[in-house]
Structures are given as C-alpha cells and as structure tokens.
Amino acid sequence: MGGAVEHTSATDAPASRFELPANAYRLSALAFSRDVQWLAAWRLPDQVELWDVGKGSRAAVWTEGPAGPWSSLPGGHRRPLAFLEDDKRILVASATNVALHDVLSGKIEQALDDSGPDLGQISISPDGHRVVGVTAEGEFAFWSLPDGHRLTHLPTRRAPWERRGSPFNFNGMALRRPPTSMSPETDWAFSPDGKAFAIGRVFAVDLWDSESGRWLSRYSGMDVPDFRIGAPTFGGGTRVAFLSPNHLAVVCGGAFAVLSVGTNLAALAVTNPASPPKERLDIRALGVSTDGTRFAVAGMRMGSRPSFGDPGAGAVFDVPLHGEIQVWNAVPLRLLVTIKGTTEEKFGAVALDAAGKRVAAITTGVRYTAHMNRSQQQAAERSPPGPYGVAAWDVP
C-alpha cells in the first residue's frame, strides 16, 4: 500500500499495515472500532476475529456459527459487525440471531429480541441506544438498547413518494418504489443523539424521525448545480454520515456536500474535490470522526478516455490511476490531507478516530491496471483475488 501524504506534513508511510486473504474474508464483513484501535473481521465460515490495527496482529478469535445472508450477497455499505460506543462490545449478525459480545472473550452478553437469521447488515447509533438492521427482503428493523427490545412501531409512515402506487417523478420518468426499498447503493445513518435517521438512495437522501417513524424531508440536490444526487458511478452509490445533529455529510460519485439538517434538508457547502480536467476521484467510502469535526472520503483517482459507444457523449472516467484518501475539516469545509495510494489499489472502506487524528482504510482486494475498463473492474470486485490491505495513518 502506498502512503504519500500531500497538503500537510503528516507521516508519509502508514503507521501500520497488514493484509488479510480475500478467500477467507469479505470486505463487507470488516469493521473498525470507533477509536480505530480494532478491526473486527468475520473469517469464513464461522469465526469472528479481532485485529489490533496498530500492531497488525490478531488479538482475539471466537467461533460464532454460520454466517448470515450477507456472505452470499454482493454490495451493501454496512456490515454484519458493529462496535458499541465503548469499543468493548460488538454486535454480530449471524445465521441465528443478532447478539452482543465482549470483543476480547467473545462471550455473549445479550441477544436482541426477535432478531432472526435474515439480518445481514446492522449499525448502531452513536449514542448506543438504537440498532437498525436490514432483512433479506430489504426492510429496516429497529431495536432499542440496552434492553434489546424490537421497536415494532418503526417505521410506521412512509414518504409520500414511497407509498405503493404513488410514482416519484424524476425528469419526467415515473419510478415506483416499494416501502423502505433497499439496494446495494443504499446507505443510512443515525444522528449523534439517535433521534434522526437518514437514508441515502439513488437520486435522493431522506430524513426520518427515528422515534416516531415520521418522514421529515427529502434532498435531491436538483437545485444545486455542483451537487446532484443521481445514478452512482462504478457502483459506488450514495453515502451518508452525520457530523452533528445539525449537519449531514453526503457523498455521491465524485462529489460531496454538507447538508444543514432542520425542517428541510439544505446544502450548506458543496464541493467537487479539486482535480485536473481529465481526472476524477471515484469515492467509495465515507468516514466521520466521533466529534464530527472531520470526515474522510476514499476510493480511487480515475483518468478519462473517449466513450467508445458514443464519442460525442464526452469522456468516461474509468482509467485507474491510484488509490486516494482525503481528510476534510467539516465546518467550514476545508481539505486537510490527501493520502495517495499505489497505482494498483482502490480503497473500499475508511474510518477516523474520535478527533480525526488517525485515519484507517481497507483496499478492495483487486490489483487494478490501466487497461481495466469499468465492467472489468466491477467483475473483479465481485470476486476479489486479494489480499485486502489494511493500513492506518497519523493525521496532523
């Protein structure tokens, strides 16, 4: 893995790095702790491991049981593993249920009520009081902590455009969407206090009240020329993460925005990461520091080529150049650090510690060449030969 750092005097080489074989792990089942000290990894078929990111060594392992539906499904932004706010406990979604474990011993401390084998992606609110999971049918399910009770009343109300038989018109095209529809391009996030729940989809971001299940507002960015949430590039999809109860970071393709969260979602600051005319940053991951002052985006810088099918359609940005991570100050929006990876790697996951002073990332497990087009890249990412590269950098 590369490690050249631009814009600041941060350490050029990673503070730590190690590799995990792709045939035993999945990128969709690797999760950093909130302090970036630990990496939880599901080792197929039935083990959960805890890795010390700083040392690059395995600190604990236990047998969990068969993997859930996530092991056979591509895509998705969330994992079957989620650390609680103290980083001493972790939720694990297996083929049996969703259970809370001690991270070092693997001892089960609690199983969530009515959490069956069909849950593949889970996440926890920053305050540790809410859990959300996604079923194999693409429905959201909510629980409260510490009691572990299923919140069967959530969600109760749909957005007007999301009701059955009610088309959402986009540029004159009617799109019919089932309630709480999910896809590999869907992402979601709790606000720091757990009271709001944002869902990032193709074409829009929706905001919900996570206590009542009431839909609050929608943002599509169609009124902002520099940032429009549309069809994802290279399968990257839309990413969302709360910086504070009042600010939401949104990434789509090669651009991102900080939205003001209130009665209605509105763009507070918008940017397209600075690039030469014939380059673009394909963003695959978004990470936010616990204090909300910084966020990181990661992916691969792409060069351009003419469109083969329609030369008049403009350039296609799918020529791999190098992996890249950018760390930004949130408000006001300002680029702090750029970490340049090697020409062969793309970053597929990124995380920041509490104050945003350490950034950790995982590569996609594919070795890219300049001759790989978009279809070849996507095919390789579905079954990566590996290994996955894990690294951490200290950031000023």
How many domains is the backbone divided into? 1
CATH superfamily: YVTN repeat-like/Quinoprotein amine dehydrogenase
Strand content: over 45%
User: What is the third-level CATH name, the topology?
Assistant: Methylamine Dehydrogenase, Chain H
Count helical runs: 1
In the CATH hierarchy, what is the architecture at level 2? 7 Propeller
Biggest sheet strand line-up: 1-27-26-25-24
Number of DSSP-assigned strands = 30
User: What level of helicity do the residues show?
Assistant: under 10%
Evaluate the radius of gyration: 20 Å
Main β-sheet description: 5 strands, antiparallel
State the end-to-end CA separation.
20 Å
What is the CATH first-level class name? Mainly Beta
Shape: globular
Report on this model:
Strands 1-27-26-25-24 form a five-stranded antiparallel sheet, with no helix packed on it. It has a four-stranded antiparallel sheet with strand order 2-30-29-28, with no helix packed on it. It contains one helix and 30 strands. It is an all-beta fold and 396 residues long. The protein has a single domain (4-158, 182-394), classed as Methylamine Dehydrogenase, Chain H, CATH 2.130.10.10. Helices cover 2% and strands 45% of the residues. The model is unreliable at 2-11, 156-181 and 230-235 (pLDDT under 50). The chain has one helix at residues 374-382, and strands spanning 4-6, 16-20, 30-32, 38-43, 47-52, 57-63, 81-83, 89-93, 98-102, 108-111, 119-124, 130-135, 140-144, 168-170, 173-175, 187-190, 196-201, 204-209, 215-219, 238-244, 247-252, 255-260, 266-271, 279-288, 294-306, 315-329, 334-340, 347-352, 358-363, 388-394.
